[in-house]
Amino acid sequence: MRNLGTLVVVFFLAVFCSAQSPVQPTFFGMHFNHIDSLPPDVPVGSIRLWGTGTGWAHLCPHGPSCDWTRLDKWLAAAKRSGITDVVYTFGKTPDWIATKQTDCQCFPPRDLDPDGGGSDDAWKNFVKALVEHNQHLGSGFSKIKYWGIWNEPSALNMWNGSIPQMVRMAKDAYAIIKAADPNAQMLSPELDAWGKKHDDWFDNFISAGGGPYVDIVAFHGYATTRDSEHATAEDIIRQIDHVKEKVARHKELAGKPLWNSECSWGRTDEANWKDLDQANAFVVRFYTLQAAAGIERVYWYMFDPNDVNACCGAMSNRDRSDLPPAVAYREVHKWLLGRTVSCSPQGHVWTCNLEGPGYKGKIVWDDDYEKSATYDATGFASFRDATGASTPLGQKSRAVTIGNKPILLEASK
Predict the structure, then answer these.
(1) Strands across the sheet with 28-30, in order?
(2) For the domain that residue 274 is a member of, what is the CATH number?
(3) Peptide bond before 302: cis, by omega within 30 degrees of 0?
């Protein structure tokens, strides 16, 4: 065990995170794979429709006429679940209009030239039909408020067209969506947060004229096992800093909200958890750090995968029973909601201050895997763990042992 007062600094992350706005319910976004997983037994402020069979090719597989049945089922299920905030991400070009027919459905429409010229009628007609359908839905449906122009277009299995084509599609979609609903918001193309290929694609999209069609900068930030034997929640800070650096290169994006629109620890079979308590710890740290970094929304991928042992970030079994990470998710929701969050590291020890009306707390942990330290908890009366269990602190000694499973220190009420 290491004492914080004499901690040998192995490394120091040059980061201080401080979010000035209280965490909102919509910060807690979610992906679902199965309609019958709604309503979930965890709090969800928003859903993103991806992996739901609602892409362009799913809705309009045989021609310009579209069948909205599956989309409507999702929007009705969301409304029944009390989830009224919906993000729709475009993707999947239908075979009947694609320049090349492949399983990935990732080639551009035939009526759109590589330089962005052409009529683009197929795309415009689809966007217009979808937006009009959404606008005229009745009270039994949640409505789409946010529109993602394309899912991971820097990956060839998602988009095999040119950047000028994507700029043109963004321009056309933006005009149609804003004409129908001036309050609607458009997400940037949703790219991986890290990697030269993705960075170059983002820079080229903005430089080619895509900036005016971006209301929200969205990215996909998975904290995986890239530099560690285990999935490491703290890796998300490096990714967020990297995204902020990219955005800062383009003045037209200044002040735009940042959303992590798809994220988790990635493949469960590659996260290399010793036990699911480590997954619980990841969930708390992952959400806390992003709230502190000013990320307005985090869309977990996903609540209910087909195979909980493979992909991705499973919180529920197919029989709707909870996996342990769902417990941690519910708990960190309680900790963060309505509060401002500021985090800083000292060596391996992280401290995150929570403040709200009449409330002050502090989340602490040691990110060194399977190591521990002591922490001076003077001024606090008890602490909670990721399961919600509360433990009073002794009257004489206020020192607590911390590991990579965060605890929330709280003062007496």
Answers:
(1) 185-187, 144-148, 86-89, 46-49, 28-30, 297-300, 258-263, 217-220, 191-192
(2) 3.20.20.80
(3) yes
CA separation for the pair 230, 125 (Å, rounded): 46
Number of domains making up the chain? 1
| 413 belongs to a structural domain | no
Per the structure, the complete domain to which residue 128 belongs is given by 23-339
Q: What is the pLDDT of residue 413?
A: 63
Sheet holding 2-3, edge to edge: 2-3, 373-376, 399-402
The answer to whether residue 118 is domain-embedded is yes
- The runs of H, that is alpha helices, within 62-162 are 69-80, 121-135
C-beta separation of 267 from 230 below 8 A: no
Closest to 381 measured CA to CA, from 410, 343, 352:
410
pLDDT band with cut points at 50, 70 and 90 for residue 18: low
Q: How far is CA 14 from the centre of its chain?
A: 23
Secondary structure class of 401 (helix, strand, coil): strand
Q: Where are the beta strands (DSSP E) in 12-165?
A: 17-18, 28-30, 46-49, 86-89, 144-148
The reply to whether 274 falls in a domain is: yes
Q: Which two tokens stand for residue 325?
A: 């990470």
Classified as helix, coil or strand, 151 is: strand
∠ CA 32-38-41, nearest 5°, is 100
Residue 384, domain member (yes or no): no
- Here the tokens at position 249 are 């290169």
Cis status of the peptide bond prior to 166, with omega within 30 of 0: no
77: Cβ contacts below 8 Å, ≥ 6 apart = 35, 38, 39
Residue type for position 204:
N
pLDDT, tens digit (0-9, with 9 covering 90-100), for 153-205: 999 999 999 999 999 999 999 999 999 999 999 999 999 999 999 999 999 99
- Evaluated on CA atoms 246, 329, 296, 13, the torsion sign reads negative
Name the 3-class secondary structure at 356. strand
Structure-block tokens of residue 356: 């709200």
CA 322 and chain centroid, separation: 20
Residues with Cβ within 8 Å of 345's Cβ and at least 6 positions away in sequence, in order, are: 12, 13, 15, 351, 367
Which residues 6+ apart lie within 8 Å of 338 measured at CB?
A: 22, 23, 356, 357
One-letter amino acid at 225 equals T
Residue 376 above 60 pLDDT? yes
